[in-house]
Design a protein that fits this description.
The protein has about 300 residues and is mainly alpha-helical. The two termini are about 30 Å apart. Helix content is about 80%, strand content about 0%. The protein contains ten helices and no strands.
Length: about 300
């Protein structure tokens, strides 16, 4: 039976979606769970407040340094003739940059915990502040994470990182300010949204049983993700139709609603896998448990 190009494309998209949702996303969560909780264990554990500020400093300054060096890295690494050496350089860069981002996330997340606690209303405040400010800055799409957004190691613009105001590198001081703002404000607000949703789910989803709570989260997350995966093409059509009719406000409301659902689905998936790892992977030996997750996630995503 000969399949038409349209059918082949559809099947490839479905296969790609399956890999991203059910293989890549769990590996990403493994990496983040291991890295995040290793920082919990080894970053000044006697003071949550000081520990959080250390992580924020590493995360923000490290990300700004990576951003400022992106053009140099792009020209240098992409200019390497050896494909193998180029891949090794990209993997090393990604591994270091991954640690920097996890530091930033862990710092903001735990700082909220240190100053406001982990009660339900702390989660609500974290989520609402993050949502409203990101929507006001027209940056809400940044809350989306794997499995509904993925980046290939073979992307031609692998080292290029977009800032909020798209300032050109030639305008040095403006470029530096744009990088600082993009990392410190929108980047931190994304963490607030995720933390808020996670905390609310902790209080509402079978709080008396972590296993059941994680399984419910997994069902919600994976089910909603599959629906959104197939809805992305009609959603794109609706967005473009609203843009053609110059209904910009309605288009933004529609798009941000879609992004919120995508974020909610991702948070549920991450929370589910994260919690099940806490329960079943060496719960009595947290350092080894997190190290194993970190290595599985890091090497698994590199292989994919």
């Amino acid at each position: 039976m000969i399949m038409s190009p349209e059918v082949k494309l559809t099947l490839w998209r479905i296969l790609d979606g399956f890999i991203c949702i059910f293989i890549l996303a769990p590996l990403v969560v493994f990496y983040w769970r291991g890295s995040f909780q290793l920082l919990d264990i080894f970053t000044y554990p006697s003071s949550l407040e000081i520990s959080s500020w250390i992580n924020i400093a590493i995360g923000v300054l490290g990300t700004v340094m990576v951003n400022l060096s992106q053009n140099v890295l792009h020209k240098t690494v992409d200019g390497i003739k050896s494909t193998a050496l180029q891949i090794i350089c990209k993997r090393f860069y990604t591994y270091i940059y991954g640690w920097i981002i996890v530091n930033h996330w862990r710092g903001i997340w735990r700082l909220w915990d240190a100053y406001t606690g982990t009660a339900f209303w702390s989660g609500v405040a974290s989520m609402l502040i993050g949502c409203f400010l990101l929507i006001g800055m027209k940056s809400f799409r940044n809350v989306v994470a794997p499995p509904l957004v993925t980046v290939s190691d073979f992307d031609k613009n692998y080292f290029i990182i977009k800032t909020r105001f798209r300032t050109k590198a030639k305008k040095s001081w403006n470029y530096l300010a744009d990088n600082l703002f993009s990392v410190a404000i929108p980047g931190s607000l994304v963490v607030s949204v995720w933390r808020g949703q996670w905390a609310v789910l902790d209080h509402f989803l079978a709080a008396d049983s972590l296993t059941i709570s994680c399984l419910i989260s997994g069902g919600i997350g994976f089910g909603l993700t599959v629906i959104l995966f197939f809805m992305q093409w009609p959603a794109s059509w609706v967005s473009k139709a609203a843009e053609r009719r110059k209904c910009n406000f309605l288009r933004l409301v529609f798009e941000d609603s879609f992004f919120y659902l995508a974020c909610f689905a991702a948070v549920n998936i991450w929370r589910s896998i994260w919690g099940l790892c806490d329960i079943f992977i060496l719960p009595e030996q947290p350092a080894w448990s997190n190290a194993i997750c970190h290595l599985i996630g890091a090497f698994g995503t590199m292989i994919l």
